[in-house]
From TrEMBL:
Annotated Gene3D superfamilies: 3.30.450.40
Domain GAF: 118-215
This protein's name: Transcriptional regulator
Organism field: Cryobacterium tagatosivorans
Superkingdom of the organism of origin: Bacteria
InterPro entries: GAF (IPR003018), GAF-like_dom_sf (IPR029016)
Pfam families for the chain: GAF
């Protein structure tokens, strides 16, 4: 049994004091969540913040880097070469809108901050400065830290911040991914007043992130093969390397004829050739003649027909030049094609749901009856629908519900009704739509 006169070490006393403080903060967080009805993801972020022993009453994002260390970290970071894209798309507009734009690394450390000068000076009070660590582990709930923790774009408004010093601020942040490996490279954040969390801000940042990732991909295409990975992390202080043409793209969403784009040239391809190119683009490792024939038709005896059609497809691709070829045994695209359907899925994977919906122009080759194409069509459609139902805002879900694909989807319309506020004038439209669906479908 411990004596009440036992002398306790300073470390033990500090630990016990923090334990009491943490319990008080946890109770306050629970009461605050119950009182304000905060979003579930915000409440979960608050709990993670408590588990990291973050004190919500103190500024915790103290810069731990010297000026030289910060310069070196910037110099070596892969996002250094794409800062001009961020400037053109976001920063130069931030001055006019009274906002701050920050670019952080994969751990949440802010490397570059620009924008409204008066606002930047005010943000220094909460240590929102270059070199500061704004991860959840250090400052608790914030757009840059929580976006990295959840691995998708997010908006945090005023009192949703865990740190009380950040309550006057709102912010939107989206992670940036490596276009080759998919690993998170960093995060782009917009901070300011209510304008920073306006409905159009998140899609704007998502579009900027997509442009940054595309720029990274293009820059890497221009690197000499012998320079390896290290060259990808150089700072663009010297003139940028020569760029090669963008990869080939195939448009198959909401259309029966495919549209192939390569090096500025556009080629319309027949429905059958669009099916073949779609399957080869989807199965990048290649397909045997037998397997491709089965994916195009449920009749296994179609191999001879496939080979004859492949000859015609290669001839149809001649206008694109000798760089665009299809290998045999297995059939494989020597020049990779990026499907517009694959771009939609890529946007969904990183949480850019609004951008994904904007890029979705309809089902993949809607009139195709090829089994392989039908499977791709179903996968893309299903993943978009699931993402909309699970993660989309009420506004975005309504936008999806109005698409031709979801016109008669009662589950989607009922989900809209559940998400809309009780006093929303849009509820009447949703109710009328559900009644119409019931009447038409009996």
């Amino acid at each position: 049994m411990t004596s009440p006169w036992t002398v306790r070490s300073p470390v033990e006393s500090e630990r016990d004091s923090f334990a009491l403080l943490a319990k008080a903060h946890e109770a306050a967080v629970s009461d605050r969540a119950a009182a304000t009805g905060v979003r579930k993801l915000v409440q979960e972020s608050w709990q993670r913040s408590l588990s990291h022993r973050v004190d919500p009453s103190l500024a915790g994002a103290e810069p731990e880097l010297t000026a030289e260390q910060l310069r070196e970290l910037r110099r070596r970071h892969p996002l250094a070469s794409v800062l001009p894209v961020v400037h053109n798309l976001l920063i130069r507009h931030a001055f006019e809108a009274g906002l701050i734009v920050a670019v952080g690394d994969e751990s949440g450390r802010l490397l570059w901050i620009d924008g409204d000068h008066v606002l930047r000076q005010k943000a220094e009070a909460m240590l929102f400065v270059e070199g500061a660590d704004w991860s959840e582990r250090r400052v608790g709930t914030s757009a840059p830290g929580t976006a990295l923790a959840l691995n998708h774009g997010i908006q945090i408004q005023r009192a949703e911040h865990f740190n009380q010093l950040a309550h006057p601020w709102s912010c939107t942040a989206v992670p940036i991914r490596d276009p080759d490996s998919g690993a998170v490279l960093g995060v782009i954040d917009i901070t300011g007043g209510d304008e920073a969390v306006a409905p159009q801000t998140l899609p704007l940042v998502e579009a900027a992130v997509a442009a940054v990732e595309a720029e990274l991909r293009i820059q890497r295409l221009g690197l000499p093969p012998d320079r390896g990975t290290a060259a990808r992390f150089q700072v663009a202080l010297a003139p940028p390397p020569p760029r090669k043409a963008a990869p080939a793209g195939l448009q198959v969403l909401g259309r029966d004829h495919g549209q192939l784009e390569l090096g500025g040239a556009t080629l319309e391809v027949s429905p059958r050739h669009a099916e073949m190119l779609t399957l080869l683009a989807w199965h990048r490792e290649g397909l045997s003649a037998e397997r491709l024939a089965l994916l195009l038709s449920d009749q296994a005896a179609g191999v001879d027909t496939l080979r004859a059609e492949m000859v015609r497809l290669r001839k149809a691709l001649d206008p694109l030049g000798p760089t665009f070829t299809i290998s045999s045994r297995p059939y494989r695209l020597d020049t990779p094609i990026e499907l517009d359907a694959q771009r939609v899925l890529a946007f969904l994977e990183r949480g850019a749901h609004r951008v994904a919906l904007g890029a979705y122009r309809g089902p993949v080759l809607p009139s195709s009856t090829a089994p392989g194409v039908a499977a791709i069509r179903a996968e893309v459609s299903s993943r978009l629908r699931e993402a909309m139902l699970s993660d989309a805002s009420a506004e975005l879900l309504l936008e999806y519900a109005r698409t031709e694909e979801a016109t008669y989807d009662t589950e989607v319309w009922r989900a809209c009704l559940e998400m809309l506020p009780a006093r929303s004038p849009k509820r009447a439209t949703v109710v009328a739509r559900l009644k119409r669906i019931d009447a038409e479908l009996g």
